[in-house]
Design brief:
This protein is an alpha/beta fold. The protein has one domain: Phosphatidylinositol (PI) phosphodiesterase (TIM Barrel, Alpha-Beta Barrel), CATH 3.20.20.190. Helix content is 32%, strand content 21%. The strands form two sheets. The chain has a nine-stranded mixed β-sheet with strand order 2-10-9-8-7-6-5-3-4. Helix 4 links the parallel strand 5 and strand 6. The mean pLDDT is 94. Bound molecules: SN-glycerol-3-phosphate and magnesium ion. The site of magnesium ion has 3 residues, from strand 3.
């Protein structure tokens, strides 16, 4: 099932206009016309996948301590901003399906939970998007997580995620049978972009919060960007690069 790759992804759900990694953020992205959202998924102390970026609760919630040591009953009582709760992964999936959004599920394991997180998220991703016209894209900085996703959900497209792209990135792509390359906008080199162009690999860059920077990246061959500034790109969100995701 093939579908187009949008050029703009709302980063951490709703970027900076809504509390990050919340359902309110995803709703806002959809309302502003975004066709794609990226969010981070980690396991709670009870093994429930939830949307959160940091391993600890302090920065984004009114709680404290490690996410992987916090029970669901404690976690879901917390305020993740503006009275929004931390969402379950399953709730975010339901919302993306309802709005027809392409989701970039970034598996964000707490240290030491790489395999367990990837197993849970990969299996749920496969199950929760079963039969959906728009399939998600799984990515992770953890190659162990990517390996698990490849083995347990082989038909869900995978993106390799790097801050700085290693020289042997093309070998890694083929090793993990990945479709897209995700990397920091400040580190992406013209050599990587030339190699990606030659091999037909879409490059997605984070985090791009200025229109001039987005324009320059697109001109250099970047296919899509993750942005916190949903307000800056909302008039352009329906523009697609002529690329297809899926198999
Ligand atoms: O997936 C792209 C981007 O979200 C990676 O960085 O730290 O915001 O998850 P981070
Ligand atoms: Mg992320």
């Amino acid at each position: 099932m093939k579908h187009p790759l949008p050029r703009w992804f709302a980063h951490r759900g709703g970027g900076s206009l809504a509390p990050e990694n919340t359902l309110a953020g995803i709703r806002l992205a959809a309302r502003l016309g975004y066709k794609a959202v990226e969010f981070d998924v980690m396991l709670s102390g009870d093994g429930t996948p939830v949307l959160i970026h940091d391993e600890t609760l302090e920065r984004t919630t009114n709680g404290s301590g490690r996410v992987c040591e916090t029970s669901d009953s404690q976690l879901f009582r917390l305020d993740a901003g503006n009275g929004e709760p931390i969402p379950r992964f399953s709730e975010a999936v339901a919302l993306c399906r309802e709005y027809g959004l392409l989701a970039n599920v970034e598996i964000k394991p707490a240290t030491g939970f790489e395999r367990q997180t990837a197993e849970t998220v990969a299996l749920m991703t496969k199950q929760l998007w079963q039969g959906a016209a728009i399939q998600p894209l799984i990515s992770s900085f953890s190659l162990e997580a990517i390996e698990v996703a490849r083995d347990l959900a082989p038909n869900i497209p995978r993106g390799l995620l790097f801050e700085s792209v290693p020289d042997d990135w093309l070998q890694e792509m083929s090793r993990w049978q990945a479709l897209t390359l995700h990397c920091s906008a400040s580190h992406v080199s013209d050599q990587v972009l030339a190699e990606a162009c030659e091999c037909g690999v879409p490059v997605l860059c984070y985090t791009v919060n200025q229109t001039e920077q987005a324009k320059a990246l697109f001109e250099r061959g970047v296919s899509a960007v993750f942005t916190d500034r949903l307000d800056l790109f909302s008039s352009e969100t329906s523009a697609y690069k002529g690329l297809q995701l899926g198999g």
